[in-house]
Design a protein that fits this description.
By secondary structure, this protein is an all-beta fold. It folds into 2 domains: about 325 residues, 6 Propeller (Neuraminidase), CATH 2.120.10; about 60 residues. The chain contains 1 helix and 34 strands. The strands form 9 sheets. A 5-stranded antiparallel β-sheet has the order 2-27-26-25-24, with no helix packed on it. A 4-stranded antiparallel β-sheet has the order 1-34-31-32, with no helix packed on it. It is globular, with a radius of gyration of 25 Å. The chain starts with a strand and ends with a strand.
Length: about 500
């Protein structure tokens, strides 16, 4: 033991109400892992936290967020970025995708935007290392009307289609599009037999009615894309049509759609099941089930969100089941969370959810930056509120969080390949103060300051090394080990039991 330091904290502290960061947790029921998220209204920092709300890694970029982030098996971060251009703006506008190493080095930066096209919202990694991107493409009024769009169905000066592209990285700033699918190539209309794509809509569910949906340029508005390697299919969430689509990558056909059969004239309003949904994902390990964050904006009965699960109706021959001109099955979804619909669980836009390996559901109520983990019996066991607000401002504990939106989140198991060989030091909670590493001129190895009126301490490490941090109560009884591992030189904010003494040993 090189040195010993003991400090006492007053038992007369005033504890602020927790409004940001970790709000509640039941460690015995949570899935133990690391949660990845990128606040929308800040410059470009992505955070990885543990279940205690402690930051274990961050990635920074000089490109503003374009919404989506995900970890790759080598520990690098794949993220979308927003190009500084006016063309084709709006929610989720991107134009850039980056891959950043665990230590913050930019490995790949690919741009895909122009005056009439722009990647947006989401990104997906494929088994071969290629990436899928969603792309808006603009068509003139003349092109739209020639394709059968009714003039009354278009109030802006263009009509946007949705393209999905597969990009093969070829260099630090280059890539080759090796596959693409465009909704514009799969249209149908039933209003003018003298124009292309004329046909009976409900007899052709593999085609998209050009007069369905809203009357603005961005009439489809895809917001998520996922790949199924078992069936070589791509799934897209189409927000403005309240549908999910599945496209065969091999045939290029739209082979399944679900959520709003009115769009292909195969059902009524009473059969609508999705309202402004986001984040459609195949369930990990089960390619016949799909989870969806059903935003419920405009839902029958009132605004309320839910995390829904559907069983895909796949026949033995691999074809998605549909009877005659009826809607695709299933008729109903299973609601995984909450227990009952309420505006207390409501995300008007963005948002997402995923099913964790232990069967729990991790939800992201995007507009409020609130993350909720729930068990299969719909019991909440973990809640976290993003403490990063507008322009990266840290929201103080006890304050009402504002402008802390998050697009969607992931939680990765602690034994995920991304963390192999990586050092995941607990660097403190975001809401407790700066996480940046600062050099110390102190000649001692470490210094601790307990923060009065709170449950955390500031630890300054002068010399890198292995440290064991132990908490004791005022009578000298051990409360537990706070940290046992390696610290680099720097300043760390750590959680400690309230009203405790504190010991550091090296």
């Amino acid at each position: 033991m090189r040195y010993l330091l003991v400090l006492l904290v007053s038992a007369h502290c005033l504890i602020a109400q927790r409004t940001v960061g970790l709000i509640s947790s039941d460690p015995s029921a949570c899935f133990d892992g690391y949660t990845l998220f990128a606040p929308v209204n800040q410059r470009a920092t992505t955070y990885l936290i543990d279940n205690d709300g402690q930051v274990v890694n961050t990635w920074n970029s000089n490109i503003p967020p374009g919404q989506a982030v995900m970890l790759l098996d080598d520990g690098s971060l794949l993220r979308t970025g927003s190009a500084n251009v006016q063309a084709m703006g709006g929610g989720g506008a991107g134009g850039i995708v980056e891959r950043i190493s665990w230590d913050g080095t930019t490995l790949w930066r690919y741009e895909h935007y122009g005056t009439s096209y722009r990647s947006h919202h989401d990104v997906e990694i494929m088994p071969n290392g290629n990436v899928l991107l969603l792309v808006w493409e603009s068509h003139t009024l003349e092109e739209a009307f020639a394709a059968g769009r009714l003039p009354s169905r278009l109030v802006e000066n263009a009509l946007w289609s949705e393209r999905v592209i597969e990009v093969q990285p070829t260099g630090p700033t280059s890539g080759t599009v090796v596959w693409s699918w465009n909704s514009w190539d799969h249209l149908i209309q039933d209003v003018d037999p003298n124009k292309p794509n004329f046909g009976v809509v409900n007899q052709n569910p593999d085609r998209i009615d050009i007069n369905a949906g809203g009357n603005r340029s961005d009439w489809l508005h895809a917001n998520s894309v996922r790949y199924n390697p078992l069936r070589d299919e791509v799934m897209i969430s189409i927000h403005h049509l309240n549908e999910i689509w599945i496209v065969s990558r091999k045939s290029g056909k739209l082979v399944y759609r679900w959520g709003n059969p009115q769009i292909y004239k195969a059902g009524s309003a009473a059969q609508q099941r999705l309202w402004g949904q986001h984040d459609a994902r195949w369930v990990p390990g089960d390619w016949n089930r799909v989870s969806i964050f059903n935003n419920g904006n405009g839902r029958t009965g009132g605004n309320a969100s839910s995390v829904d699960l559907i069983e895909l109706p796949v026949n033995a021959d691999g074809v998605y089941r549909r009877t005659g001109t009826a809607a695709y099955e299933p008729a109903q979804s299973t609601m995984l969370y909450p227990e009952s619909l309420s505006n207390r669980f409501f995300g008007q836009n963005i948002s997402g959810a995923t099913i964790l390996p232990n069967g729990n559901v991790l939800s992201c109520v995007g507009p409020s930056g609130m993350f909720i983990e729930s068990t299969p019996d719909k019991r909440e066991v973990w809640r976290y509120v993003n403490p990063v607000g507008q322009n990266g401002t840290i929201i103080p504990q006890g304050s009402t969080p504002r402008n802390n939106m998050v697009f969607k989140i992931y939680r990765y198991p602690k034994d995920a390949p991304a963390f192999e060989g990586k050092r995941l030091s607990r660097r403190g909670r975001i809401e407790d103060g700066p996480l940046s590493v600062l050099e110390s001129a102190n000649e001692r190895d470490a210094d601790i300051k307990l923060m009065y009126g709170s449950d955390h301490a500031c630890v300054t490490i002068t010399n890198p090394g292995s440290y064991r941090l132990v908490a004791y109560d005022i009578l000298g009884r051990e409360l537990g080990v706070i940290y046992d591992g390696w610290y680099e030189a720097g300043v760390y904010t750590i959680s400690v039991p309230r009203y405790s003494a504190f010991v550091v040993r090296q």
